[in-house]
């Protein structure tokens, strides 16, 4: 895995002033353990938060910084923290780190946990202090075995140093932290499904309200944040709001930096910490190096499999939530995928929808039945056996499984790439429709006709 900096790796080095997430990384890719982490100013922000700041001050600082969730939804972190109850009599509260990174084409949290486990622990420690949570869980994707090993070692190091456990830093504040590995379900990326799984239940999303801040783990107030989100907290506390906001490019409504990447048949696939507001073209050409020789960019996804496809002319969009929204899709996780001109879009979408269909929890009808229907139609079109009206049926499913039509955001994310692929590459789908036989009286069935 490649990790460079704001400019080409041979010209600009990472620094604490410009790369709050990655400046401590080792060149050899090995994990940074406690002694080295503290030598690189690690836990200084936690000491400042414990010595000089009340919990409400920490919450307000994070709110003022403009930090938003880095898992894909982009909800303002400080606002989310502010939803936790103020009642001091509620002495059982939980902090959950969502480390169930199962979005295809996304591996940013894995890098942070494997190479900088203490950065995550420090971020959770400060967050726990702010939210008055006495226990935390890192809900980790089960396949991340190296991350689990490194996080567990880092937790033990922090305990031995008095940075976790009882009476942390002599403050009287207690915080226990546990690493919990999941069983491997994409739906656990949804925070209430994650909570159900942590409790030993089936990983179905819960109805909201009540929100986890009111009724979360075992019925107690709970805050759920993504790995990268929590890793931003120490730098914000240490260096302040104005500095953090200054990191983003002009025009960006999102503050700070973001781990972004590019995969596919590019010359330099990798992961980089970049300021919000860089363009997709900078990410693709200056960092990923453009397409490999013999390949041409056909389209790209800006942030994981659940985001819509964009064309090469959309590369000039700025990489922040509003910038990507202007060209018709979502920023997502910020890890882009290049699709080359040798790829058939029908086959690509069939593969994607098979994944999303398999990972549906099956709780609501549109998702449970609609996604397998899309797979069946795409497989027929892929094999040249599609029927007249199949494309319209697929577009009908895109509408019926869109935002607000299902119990959670799984189905809307699943059909967004499908809708954009048909929009931009419809002839490839039409090529899989078999010629209608003379006298064929088969009726075209669309989702709008079901139940009519």
From TrEMBL:
Needed cofactors, names only, are:
[4Fe-4S] cluster; FMN
Q: Name one GO molecular function term.
A: NADH dehydrogenase (quinone) (non-electrogenic) activity
State which Enzyme Commission number(s) the record gives: 7.1.1.-
Q: Which UniProt keywords apply?
A: 4Fe-4S, Flavoprotein, FMN, Iron, Iron-sulfur, Metal-binding, NAD, Oxidoreductase, Quinone, Translocase
- List the Pfam families: Complex1_51K (PF01512), NADH_4Fe-4S (PF10589)
Instruction: Domain (NADH-ubiquinone oxidoreductase 51kDa subunit iron-sulphur binding): give its ranges.
Output: 346-391
- What is the catalytic activity of this protein? a quinone + NADH + 5 H(+)(in) = a quinol + NAD(+) + 4 H(+)(out)
Q: Which family does it belong to?
A: Belongs to the complex I 51 kDa subunit family.
Q: What does this protein do?
A: NDH-1 shuttles electrons from NADH, via FMN and iron-sulfur (Fe-S) centers, to quinones in the respiratory chain.
Query: Any idea what this protein is called?
Result: NADH-quinone oxidoreductase subunit F
Species of origin: Pseudomonas beijingensis
Gene name in the database record: nuoF
């Amino acid at each position: 895995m490649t990790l460079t900096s704001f400019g080409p790796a041979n010209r600009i080095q990472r620094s604490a002033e410009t790369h709050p997430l990655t400046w401590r990384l080792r060149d050899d890719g090995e994990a940074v353990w406690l002694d080295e982490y503290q030598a690189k100013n690690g836990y200084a922000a936690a000491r400042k938060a414990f010595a000089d700041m009340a919990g409400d001050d920490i919450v307000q600082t994070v709110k003022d910084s403009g930090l938003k969730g880095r898992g894909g939804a982009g909800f303002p972190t400080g606002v989310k923290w502010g939803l936790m109850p103020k009642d001091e009599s509620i002495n059982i509260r939980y902090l959950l780190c969502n480390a169930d990174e199962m979005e295809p084409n996304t591996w940013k949290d894995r890098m942070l946990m494997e190479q900088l486990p203490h950065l995550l622990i420090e971020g959770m420690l400060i967050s726990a202090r702010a939210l008055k949570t006495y226990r935390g869980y890192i809900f980790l994707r089960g396949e991340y075995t190296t991350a689990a090993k490194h996080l567990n070692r880092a937790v033990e190091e922090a305990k031995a140093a008095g940075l976790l456990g009882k009476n942390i830093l002599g403050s009287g504040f207690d915080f226990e932290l546990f690493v919990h590995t999941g069983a491997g379900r994409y739906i656990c990326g949804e925070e209430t499904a994650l909570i159900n799984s942590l409790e030993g239940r089936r990983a179905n999303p819960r109805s909201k309200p009540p929100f986890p801040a009111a009724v979360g783990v075992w019925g107690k107030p709970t805050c759920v944040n993504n790995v990268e989100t929590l890793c931003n907290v120490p730098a914000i506390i240490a260096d302040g709001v104005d500095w953090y906001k200054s990191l983003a490019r002009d025009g960006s409504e999102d503050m700070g930096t973001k781990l972004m990447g590019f995969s596919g048949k590019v010359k330099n696939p990798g992961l980089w910490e970049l300021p919000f507001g860089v363009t997709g073209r900078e990410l693709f050409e200056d960092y990923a190096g453009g397409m490999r020789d013999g390949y041409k960019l056909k389209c790209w996804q800006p942030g994981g499999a659940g985001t819509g496809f964009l064309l090469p002319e959309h590369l000039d969009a700025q990489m922040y939530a509003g910038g990507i929204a202007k060209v018709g899709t979502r920023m997502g996780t910020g890890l882009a995928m290049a699709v080359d001109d040798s790829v058939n879009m029908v086959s690509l979408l069939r593969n994607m929808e098979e994944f999303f269909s398999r990972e549906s929890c099956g709780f609501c009808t549109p998702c449970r039945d609609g996604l397998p229907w899309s797979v069946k139609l795409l497989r027929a079109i892929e094999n040249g056996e599609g029927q007249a009206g199949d494309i319209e049926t697929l577009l009908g499913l895109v509408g019926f499984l869109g935002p607000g039509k299902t119990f959670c955001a799984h189905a809307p994310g699943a059909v967004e790439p499908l809708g954009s692929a048909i929009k931009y590459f419809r002839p490839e789908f039409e090529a899989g429709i078999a010629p209608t036989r003379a006298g064929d009286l088969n009726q075209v069935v669309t989702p709008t006709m079901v139940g009519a």
